[in-house]
Amino acid sequence: MQEAMFPETDGVLPAAVPAPVQSLAAALPSVVRLGTSSWTFPGWAGLVYAHRASAQALARDGLPAYGHHPLLRTVSLDRSFYWPLEAAEYAACAQQVPDDFRFVVKAPARICDAVLRDPGGRGARPNPLFLDAQTALGEFVRPAMEGLGEKLGALVFQISPLPAHWLSDREALFAGLDALLHALPPGLLCAVEVRDAAWLGADFAALLRARGATYCLGLHPRLPPIDEQLPMLRALWPGPLVCRWNLHRRHGAQGYESAKAGYEPFDRLVDPDPGTREVLARVAAATSAAGQPVYVTINNKAEGSAPCSVIALAEEIARQRAG
């Protein structure tokens, strides 16, 4: 039945989904949406796609096949971090996925990075648009709302690592974020992800709660392990769960390239992290039991293969709910 529902196309076709995975997807609450960061990996042939295709072909034609997988009900549009997308680009994505699919969208770096960076990633000079509310509305929020419509799931403002002088002036930093969140239209699911542990605390949680935003659980070596971030979520309870599982801790804060080298072609779990997965599943199960939405997107660099991580996490969520 699943294969017959896929529209006729000459492009990328979906992989056959094993019956146990279909049953697992059917058992998850509808408010739980799991997915990956992007969909453009040739090594996912047999997992997500029926045949191997180039990254370019998947970027162009792979999203319908990705959205056909019953466990992949969200995806993180990370490319919006590197340059703002137009409403038409968001709309083109929305047209390729089922009605119950939702997108997690990252705000552009021109809003979320305090410095303008050179081609090597080094901070070159201060960014005058950092946390600028009008730029956020005009270049990110409104185009995403217009283009994605009901398929907009969560907006993520990932604040890049900050220079020490920004972190030391907590009052000014919080004032800037508060003004940004205050300017956003009501009713949106907005999550703030940080890359500096200095953010974490009761005052940060209070700011988010006051503005109707939530904390994006960022699983990244720059931050404390998942257990040590849970007080942020408890301070915002009851509320949604937005999580981006980015990078295995063994690679360190700058370890994306080493993870990529060790994990390609991203077709299996190389470094399983059952401890993180168990805690994350427990939080997801509790959040969904309270009727709150759950968005978890996983990078290949978390364990080696994002689709395999999604399946393993779904299995653990099901086990937690059954227990």
UniProtKB/TrEMBL annotation:
Protein name, as recorded: DUF72 domain-containing protein
Ranges in a coiled coil: none
A Pfam family per the record: DUF72
Taxonomic source organism: Piscinibacter aquaticus
